[in-house]
Design a protein that fits this description.
This protein has about 220 residues and is an alpha/beta fold. It has two domains: about 1-65 and about 175-220, Rossmann fold, CATH 3.40.50; about 75-140, no CATH class. Helix content is about 35%, strand content about 30%. A six-stranded mixed beta sheet has the order 5-6-7-3-8-9, sandwiched between helices. Strands 2-1-4 form a three-stranded antiparallel beta sheet. The chain starts with a strand and ends in a 5-residue tail after the last helix. Keywords: ATP-binding, Nucleotide-binding, Transport. GO terms for molecular function: ABC-type transporter activity; ATP binding; ATP hydrolysis activity. Belongs to the ABC transporter superfamily. This is Capsular polysaccharide transport system ATP-binding protein.
Length: about 220
Amino acid sequence: MLHLENLTKAYRTGRSLKYIVKDANLDIPNRRSVALLGRNGAGKSTLLGMIAGSLKPDMGRIRIHGSISWPVGFSGSFHGALTGAQNTRFVARVYGVDTDELYKFTEDFCELGEHFHMPVRTYSSGMKARLAFAVSVGIDFDTYIIDEVTSVGDASFRQKSSALMHDRLRGSGAIVVSHNMRMLTDLCDCGVVLEHGTLTFFEDVKEAVERHEFNMKARDYR
């Protein structure tokens, strides 16, 4: 269960405040895959950051029952001087999971070959993304935070990533952000639309997509 209670977050723009969310209240049951939709700049990433714990709300609180991932595929916390293998083992120790199990899964899934044993600072952005995705989904979380992650790599790797994500979501929930409406309707069963600081929940993800597309056509966005 994810529970948002009177959640408020705003940034000052000149003399005024721009509200990302304002007095938002929302309950999302366990094992639901939620599409988070909103315009560019609406604050989706900020909301995800608060849910993940990397940002603090100005007011209100977020209660989470069960474990929640960092944004799947996020590589910003990797230490550049450590190898992919060393970073993987470090993450396993931090999250208290079997080190050897996560190591073996990640090495096999990310397909980096000998680069897995080289410093991450030598990786291309694509290689970092592969490593980050494999480490993220190699741990069983109750809820995954997903942000365009299945677009990583070539067609074969994207297909493999998508298949694994579907497998994980059979027993876990997710909060998914993507500009790909087909991906959202494929992965998610419900949706939340963020508009003018207000969160609106839709039991059917297709209804959420329709509302988002309607909002995108409106010209009165502030």
